[in-house]
Amino acid sequence: MKNVGFIGVGYxxxxxxxxxxxxxxxxxxxxxxxxxxxxxxxKEGAQEIKKIEEFSNKKLDAxxxxxxxxxxAKSISEKISKILDTKTIIIDIxxxxxxxxxxxxxxxxxxxxxxxxxxxxxxxxxxEEGVLGGIVGGSESNFKxxxxxxxxxxxxxxxxxxxxxxxxxxxxxxxxx
Length: 177
Fold this sequence. Notes:
The chain is an alpha/beta fold. It has helices spanning 13-22, 35-43, 70-80, 100-110, 124-129, 140-153, 165-176, and strands spanning 3-7, 26-30, 47-49, 62-65, 89-92, 114-117, 120-121, 132-136, 154-159.
C-alpha cells in the first residue's frame, strides 16, 4: 500500500482517484470548488485534508496533480514543493501550455522533488475505467518511479522524452484531432 496525494479530484480526476483506491492505496485528497466529486471519493475511502500543508505529514510516495491550467499548477507547485519529501514523485496530468510543464518542473527541481508530466487522452468515462492514454515527459528515472501509478489509470502510456515533450505532443494531438 502506497500513500498517494491528489490535487484536482474533479471532472477527470475523480476517475483516476477512484482507480487509486481500487488498487488499495491510501489516498489523500484536498477540496476544490466542486464538492460533489470530493464527497463521493471520500465516501469511497479517500481521506480529505483541509489545507495543502497537511500533505507534509502523510509520507506521500506520489502526488497527482490534475488541475485546470498552467497558472494554477504553478501556484500549487510553489506551495507543495516546499513541504514534500524528496522521495515523492509528482505526476502532473494538467494540460499545460507549451512551456508550462517545463516551468512547473523547475519549481520541483529547485526543491529536489521528482516530477513527470503525463497529459492524458480520453475523458471521464475512460478515467473511471482506468483506460486513459498517457503522454509522458520526464527523466527516465522519474518515469520508472511513476510507472506503477500510471498503470493504475492508463491502458497505454508512452514515454516521449524530457519534460516538455509530453505537453507539446498533447497539444499537437489536440490540434490534429
